[in-house]
Design a protein that fits this description.
The protein is of the alpha/beta class. It contains 11 helices and 15 strands.
């Protein structure tokens, strides 16, 4: 296969019946859809509950009222159009509003709506000026959408300018392309050359992959990972915990193990954000914690490096444990300096899907932050 063809409407999915297409039209009238031939071929169409089908094929349950479009208040940390700065060390450029497929549980589905495309970086030079003015930032994350959906020449423009900013040591590319369309990597020598040129011993390029399920590991995706590693990128994987996809200790442990075998560090497992349309994909926090910990029981130390976190408006809150009647949280990253490293004990709530659903705090242990700097401007 050269580049798989993208399919942006239900009409193009011949595997769906006419009845299914007619029903699901209500969903696509509200939320965008996108798949491609390569990924459709990985689905077992005999199995209604196929996990990859659940990732990309719209479902009527998306119509259930729930959540907000911007569940983590990203607007609060948007310092320029397409530039977010929430944690001191890391600046985000939202470089485009497209992905190689649209995950049904996407937390940034607002970017795919016409009126919200304004959130994408328009003026690279403004973004570079912002980086220069913020020496506390050592990491730049290029995300969206998907960084690898940009043409390589455009990506090069951004990376080469960012590399001129001395204190930006790590450039991360957030991408589900290795899972959705590995041919983007397999067929583009210039992309690998770009990584080779700009991923240096003291200043690496990280590719933050987004594999959700072991069925996404194919000969092609493994080869794409291998080429990225050979080109000098460091690879980490992040995935949300999704009902019907990876909410099973066996599946999740297989995902972690396979990643570690390929040389990709399992980095984050995210609690599914309460974004509009996502209720059917979310797993309650305490149930999710058990699945996550059980999965880790089957793993080597290298395969169990992921943390189970919520990307909450106040910071990345790690779910670190539970006992009879209590749940334990810790700020892994905090947007407010006073929260940094804070450990919190809350009364359990098995129905909770988000930090805000915990109402009764039992104890809190704040930590003095010796590196405190002022928050985003
Ligand atoms: S790859 Fe990420 S940004 Fe793109 S649709 Fe999936 S969750 Fe959303």
């Amino acid at each position: 296969m050269s580049q798989p063809e993208y399919i942006n409407s239900l009409e193009g999915i011949f595997q769906l019946s006419e009845k299914e297409k007619a029903e699901l039209g209500q969903v696509t009238a509200k939320f965008q859809m996108r798949v491609n031939e390569y990924y459709l071929n990985l689905i077992d169409w005999e199995d209604e509950n196929d996990p990859l089908r659940r990732i990309v094929i719209p479902h009527l349950d998306e119509l259930e009222e729930w959540g907000r479009l911007d569940a983590s208040d990203e607007y609060k940390y948007t310092v320029l159009p397409g530039v977010q700065h929430k944690y001191d060390s890391t600046v985000l450029f939202l470089v485009n509003s497209q992905c190689a497929g649209y995950c049904r549980f996407c937390f940034r589905k607002r970017l795919f709506l016409e009126k919200e495309k304004e959130e994408v970086l328009k003026d690279l030079e403004e973004g570079i000026r912002y980086l220069r003015a913020h020496p506390e930032a050592s990491n730049l994350l290029l995300t969206g959408g998907d960084a690898l959906l940009l043409p390589t020449s455009k990506l090069e423009q951004i990376i080469s300018r960012a590399r001129e900013v001395e204190h930006i040591r790590i450039i991360r590319l957030g991408s589900k392309v290795p899972a959705y369309n590995p041919y983007r990597i397999l067929n583009d020598k210039a992309l690998l050359e770009l990584i080779r040129r700009y991923s240096k011993p003291k200043k690496r390029i990280y590719v933050m992959t987004h594999f959700n399920h072991p069925n996404e590991f194919t000969e092609q995706s493994r080869e794409a990972i291998s080429l990225l590693l050979k080109a000098g990128a460091v690879l980490c994987n992040q995935t949300p915990l999704i009902r019907g996809v990876n909410d099973n200790p066996f599946v999740l442990s297989q995902l972690f193990k396979e990643l570690s075998f390929m040389g990709v560090a399992p980095y984050y497992v995210f609690q599914c954000r309460p974004t509009i349309g996502n209720k059917a994909y979310a797993v309650p926090i305490e149930e999710g914690y058990e699945i996550f910990e059980q999965a880790r029981m089957a793993c080597s130390g290298l395969a169990k490096r992921a943390r189970f976190v919520m990307s909450h408006s106040r910071g990345k809150i790690e779910i670190v444990g539970k006992s009879d009647g209590e749940v334990y949280f810790k700020y892994h990253r905090s947007a407010q300096p006073e929260d940094s490293g804070k450990f919190m004990v809350f009364k359990a709530n098995p129905k909770a899907y988000w930090f805000d659903d915990y109402e009764e705090v039992i104890r809190e242990y704040p930590l003095e932050n010796p590196f405190r700097v002022s928050g985003p401007e």
